[in-house]
């Protein structure tokens, strides 16, 4: 039941942070316009490289290490302080490098300066500790408070394109304050450390092993926007970013299982219970597929009507981009289960690293010709190709460890139901008036139709839901 409780905590938070952008994105699209949205997207994509360097793989590594030692208070205290101090060192180096970058940058310098606090905030991010302890409530409630404060500040202080710097500062400060708000909760778990016995650099190499795949991941998460801004225009970067935000918001609900299951699988693996780690894999794979398929098909189906209503007619270029990129919802859901929930906690880091490096290489190779030829649509295609490469490689690498038949049990039912649902909702989208009521009807009809098809075909997820309900 603890896994279910943690998933509900995390899923609730993901739904909440899905609602917040649903309010702010259309507002910001109107007050900042394509240029303002594009400048923020472009400058943030650059600063994320320094954030990545400062993070140095700690979120995944720290989560896993805390899960390994959480039953030993002394070792828990020692591990926390060592990892925390190590990250502070790398953040200081990242801030120094960013200062050098600013000294040689003239364009958009005021916006780059406003983004600086985002890097500083990384040093105080200790959410990995609470995830490793499987205490998701404290991070969820902290996140809710910060999101509400951010929402209020955006509507209070961001009124036009001239407030773009203020908007960036609000986002940066909210991250920093949110991270600082977690520190009082540490007292429940930690003892007084013996600083003379701490060896923070001892965690550097194993953390770097997880840092390498994050570098590769960041390439095909951020490089698209950086290249669009540099090769085409900041407006094109903004179009892709708007699509990417919507896809990632939907995806966040599905991948909430990864955050919850990583410490659970790591703990089981540390105790030598290898059969249970595979049981977790099969269960999670079925669950995320059942969720990801209708979300991908559903988002693609309503996009032609949703984009002009949500972003205004100035962003109609987002429509084909979002329809293409919706495919990655299923692919990332799968790699989240195989990679984050299985390969990482079972210490198969090299395989995980190779998979994301492969994805980065595919993205880099595909980006240049596709972006030059098709702009933001090309970036979306490159994203799909890179995620497909990661998925295929991870499935190949685990073929001797898992039972494919059990892994994909019921997946064809989900895909068939999703495809039929797409046809119905896309037809309704063309038929109905261009207003929000029509979109609500389309979504409701799609959800009910998909659920009905799963019941009729007796899909695996139905029996899982019934079993949980009886508990």
Walk me through this protein's architecture.
The chain is mainly α and 471 residues long. It has one domain (2-185, 204-470). It is 82% helix and 0% strand. The protein is built from 19 helices and no strands. It has helices spanning 2-55, 58-69, 73-103, 109-114, 116-122, 127-132, 136-157, 164-180, 204-231, 234-270, 274-311, 318-325, 328-343, 349-374, 376-397, 404-407, 411-431, 436-456, 460-470. The mean pLDDT is 82.
Descriptive labels:
0% strand, single chain, PolySynth_Transporter, globular, transmembrane, mainly alpha
Rough outline? globular
Overall number of structural domains: 1
Quaternary class: single chain
Structural class: mainly alpha
Major β-sheet, in short?
Answer: none
Query: How many helices?
Result: 19
Strand residue percentage: under 5%
Measure the end-to-end span.
9 Å
What would the average pLDDT be, to the nearest integer?
Answer: 82
Q: Secondary-structure element order, as H and E?
A: HHHHHHHHHHHHHHHHHHH
According to DSSP, the number of beta strands is 0
Uncertain spans: none
Q: Cα-atom Rg, whole angstroms?
A: 22 Å
- What percentage of residues falls in helices of 4 or more residues? over 70%
């Amino acid at each position: 039941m603890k896994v279910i409780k943690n998933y509900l905590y995390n899923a609730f938070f993901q739904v909440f942070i899905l609602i917040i952008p649903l309010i702010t994105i259309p507002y910001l699209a109107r007050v900042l316009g394509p240029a303002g949205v594009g400048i923020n997207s472009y400058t943030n994509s650059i600063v994320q490289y320094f954030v990545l360097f400062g993070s140095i793989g700690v979120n995944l590594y720290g989560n896993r290490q805390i899960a390994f030692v959480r039953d030993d208070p002394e070792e828990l205290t020692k591990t926390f302080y060592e990892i925390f101090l190590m990250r502070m060192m790398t953040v200081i180096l990242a801030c120094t490098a960013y200062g050098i970058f600013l000294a040689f940058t003239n364009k958009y310098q005021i916006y780059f300066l406003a983004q600086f606090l985002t890097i500083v905030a990384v040093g105080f991010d200790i959410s990995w500790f609470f995830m490793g302890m499987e205490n998701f409530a404290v991070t969820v409630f902290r996140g809710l408070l910060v999101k509400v404060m951010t929402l209020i500040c955006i509507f209070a202080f961001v009124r036009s394109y001239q407030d773009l710097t203020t908007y960036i500062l609000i986002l940066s400060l909210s991250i920093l304050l949110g991270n600082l708000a977690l520190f009082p909760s540490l007292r429940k778990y930690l003892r007084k450390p013996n600083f003379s016995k701490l060896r923070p650099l001892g965690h550097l190499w194993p953390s770097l092993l997880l840092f390498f795949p994050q570098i590769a991941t960041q390439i095909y998460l951020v490089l698209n926007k950086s290249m669009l801004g540099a090769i085409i225009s900041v407006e094109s970067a903004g179009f892709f970013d708007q699509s990417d935000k919507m896809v990632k918001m939907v995806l966040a609900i599905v991948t909430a299982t990864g955050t919850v299951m990583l410490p659970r699988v790591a703990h089981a693996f540390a105790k030598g219970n290898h059969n249970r780690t595979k049981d977790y894999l099969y269960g999670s794979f079925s669950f995320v597929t059942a969720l990801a398929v209708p979300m991908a098909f559903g988002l693609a189906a309503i996009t032609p009507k949703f984009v002009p209503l949500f972003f205004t007619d100035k962003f109609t270029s987002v429509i084909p981009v979002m329809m293409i990129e919706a495919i990655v919802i299923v692919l990332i859901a799968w790699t989240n289960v195989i990679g984050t929930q299985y390969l990482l906690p079972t210490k198969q880091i090299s395989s995980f690293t190779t998979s994301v490096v492969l994805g980065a290489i595919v993205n880099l190779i595909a980006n240049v010709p596709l972006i030059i030829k098709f702009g933001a649509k090309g970036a979306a295609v490159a994203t799909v190709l890179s995620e497909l490469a990661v998925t295929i490689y991870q499935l190949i690498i685990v073929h001797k460890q898992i039972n494919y038949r059990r892994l994909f049990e019921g997946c064809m039912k989900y895909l068939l139901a999703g495809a039929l649902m797409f046809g119905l909702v896309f037809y309704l989208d063309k038929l109905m008036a261009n207003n929000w009521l029509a979109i609500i009807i389309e979504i409701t009809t799609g959800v009910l139709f998909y659920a009905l098809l799963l019941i009729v075909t007796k899909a695996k997820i139905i029996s899982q839901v019934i079993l949980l309900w009886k508990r």
